[in-house]
């Protein structure tokens, strides 16, 4: 059986150099003393040198700008230099190198000794310029710092929670609102949040929170929650969308302390109820209109006069238009004395009146304004 011809798989020097130049990272061969034996195009572009300028030079002196002293090139602070002399592999994450033009850059370096070498090259240095990566990392850190400042100063509390109610992020403002630190809330699981919602609100809130994930519904709830100091506050909590990461659904939202608004609403309702009670106790019919001529207050006496005494309705409207000067302010109360209606109707207003004359709109049986 004839022998197959042997093939020489050893690349030529030009092929080897072409292969080295095709590699994106910088490559540099070093001898036992740290002198450069070869390098690729990426390394030359990275450092700004020509191959003739760098060949046979001490790499440490070229890139660290440390001139040799007394003919020696030892430098105890240089990990690459020490690894070259000890023939030990080394990896540095942020080595400071200087280019030919004096500018510097941070590089990640791998120095590996060659197990077998027939020539002068004893180790191979791989270099990756980390300048762009480090700049992007610093920019990201600045953005995060700005974001943290914003979240610390806005009145709302931002949060990220998974579908079980476990909070994985909450802004520092939460401590001034609920009294709990960020660490306490994130470490406690859903029990701290759900367990401190008012018993009258918990079912509604839990149902809306579940719908946020199951039905992609809108979570927009106001509820009472107990602070760390056991006092109760009102919060307005909302989230609009969910997202999935590694198979887990998360929601990002914000909540605000609305206790003062809720207290103001209760006070307003109490005052309104008091005014309505007073209005319904008078023998006069009373109507309050707003800027858009909408009804603000209509007492029972006016409804009775317009509906219970049907024959009086047409007479009243005719009397108001033909015989009385009825002056309504844009927002005001006009008290009409029906007991003294005769040839002339009188109108008394507790506000300063202007010269506009308006026709009182029709009042339906249900009290609606026509």
Outline the structure in words.
There is one protein chain. The chain is built from 13 helices and 14 strands. By secondary structure, it is α+β, with helices and mostly antiparallel strands. It has three domains: 13-132, PAS domain (Beta-Lactamase); 154-257, Beta-Lactamase; 271-348. It has a five-stranded antiparallel β-sheet with strand order 2-1-5-4-3. The N and C termini lie far apart (114 Å).
Q: What does the main sheet amount to? A: 5 strands, antiparallel
**What is the beta-strand fraction?**
25-35%
Q: Quote the average pLDDT.
A: 77
DSSP strand count:
14
The percent range for helix content is 25-40%
Overall CATH class of the largest domain = Alpha Beta
Class of secondary structure makeup: alpha+beta
Determine the CATH superfamily of the largest domain.
Answer: PAS domain
Number of domains: 3
Please tell me the CATH architecture of the largest domain by its name. 2-Layer Sandwich
Instruction: State the end-to-end distance.
Output: 114 Å
**Number of helices, counting only DSSP H or I runs of 4 residues or more:** 13
Rg calc: 42 Å
Helix-strand string: HEEHHHHEEEHEEHHHHEEEHEEHHEE
Strand order of the largest sheet: 2-1-5-4-3
User: Within the CATH hierarchy, at the fold level, what is the topology of the largest domain?
Assistant: Beta-Lactamase
Low-confidence stretches: 67-74, 321-370
């Amino acid at each position: 059986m004839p022998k197959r011809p042997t093939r020489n798989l050893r690349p030529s020097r030009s092929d080897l150099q072409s292969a080295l130049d095709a590699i994106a990272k910088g490559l540099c061969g070093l001898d036992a003393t740290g002198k450069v034996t070869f390098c690729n195009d990426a390394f030359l572009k990275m450092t700004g040198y020509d191959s003739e300028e760098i060949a046979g030079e001490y790499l440490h002196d070229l890139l660290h700008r440390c001139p040799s002293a007394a003919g020696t090139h030892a430098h105890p602070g240089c990990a690459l230099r020490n690894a070259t002399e000890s023939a030990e592999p080394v990896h540095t994450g942020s080595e400071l190198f200087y280019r030919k033009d004096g500018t510097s850059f941070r590089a990640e370096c791998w120095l590996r000794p060659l197990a077998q070498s027939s020539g002068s090259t004893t180790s191979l240095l791989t270099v990756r310029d980390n300048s762009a990566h480090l700049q992007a990392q610093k920019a990201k850190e600045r953005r995060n710092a700005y974001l943290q400042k914003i979240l610390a100063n806005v009145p709302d509390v931002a949060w990220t929670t998974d579908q079980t109610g476990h909070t994985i992020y909450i802004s520092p403002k939460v401590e001034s609102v609920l009294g709990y630190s960020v660490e306490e809330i994130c470490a406690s699981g859903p029990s701290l949040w759900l367990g401190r919602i008012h018993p009258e609100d918990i079912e509604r809130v839990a149902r809306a929170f579940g719908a946020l994930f199951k039905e992609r519904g809108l979570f927009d709830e106001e509820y009472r929650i107990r602070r760390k100091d056991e006092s109760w506050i009102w919060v307005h909590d909302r989230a609009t969308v969910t997202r999935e990461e590694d198979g887990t659904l998360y929601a990002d939202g914000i909540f605000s302390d609305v206790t003062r608004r809720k207290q103001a609403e209760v006070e307003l309702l109490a005052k309104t109820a008091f005014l309505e009670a007073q209005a319904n106790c008078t023998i006069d019919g009373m109507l309050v209109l707003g800027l858009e001529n909408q009804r603000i207050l209509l007492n029972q006496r006016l409804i009775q006069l317009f509906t219970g005494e049907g024959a009086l309705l047409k007479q009243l409207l005719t009397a108001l238009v033909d015989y009385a000067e009825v002056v309504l302010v844009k927002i005001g109360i006009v008290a009409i004395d029906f007991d003294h209606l005769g040839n002339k109707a009188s109108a008394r207003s507790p506000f300063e009146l202007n010269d506009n004359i308006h026709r009182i709109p029709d009042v339906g049986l249900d009290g609606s304004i026509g």
